[in-house]
Amino acid sequence: MVRCTGEEHVTNYCQSYETTVASASGAGMDLHIYVLPARSFATAPVPSIDSIVGDSDLNLTGVIDIRSSQLANALSTIMSASVMQGSSILPTPAGLPTPVEGMPSDQRMRYALNTAEHASNFDFAEYAAYADIVPVESSPLHVDSLGNILWRIKDVVEIASAAGAGAKVGLLAAGAAAAGAGVVTSPVLILAGGTVGVVLVVAGAAVGREIGRPIGEKIRDWMRKRMGIA
What we know:
Layout: E1 17-22, E2 30-37, H1 49-53, E3 61-65, H2 71-79, H3 81-84, H4 105-114, H5 122-130, E4 134-136, E5 142-144, H6 146-160, E6 166-175, E7 183-193, E8 197-203, H7 204-208, H8 213-227
Antiparallel strand pairs: 1-2, 2-8, 3-6, 4-5, 6-7, 7-8
Helix pairs in contact: 2-4, 2-5
């Protein structure tokens, strides 16, 4: 195993975590969460959120900044069929245009973010944002909420002036890109901060089906490289 950063008198080894949270009602309401703790990065410090979304190993497009108040909206967005498949499941709120079929994925993603409160998956998205479901390294290992994690990142930025921490959502493409076919695109939420590490969240449908397996593989490959074991 690869030795990772940590206190000199403690033997530390690289480790990552994955967990899935799903609604009992099904209906495509599930999220898969990847966690790469700060100590597991082969080179310190944890990279900035901007360098992560700009990393050629991820090659995200249509990136949008996410505020703390938008966290549930972002989780709803990454589960939205209007973003995943191009056929909207969102009703059209009064005064807003109906997204047309064929609208670019980044525009569908922004529309879904702005209208998430009207989506059928929003109650589950709120639960996923604020329930204690994310494995977090401390003493001992415990679970915390994405909301608390993002607030801690915000506190670090405000108190310690840490640069490059925050949250963003973007589109991740994976698959046989070199062959020009079989490419799968999925929205992903990324939280990054020096004291936390990096958390990536995708819709369970994006990694739990045969067609979506390249998304999960790409995220795991990215984490392995950051851990220095790829």
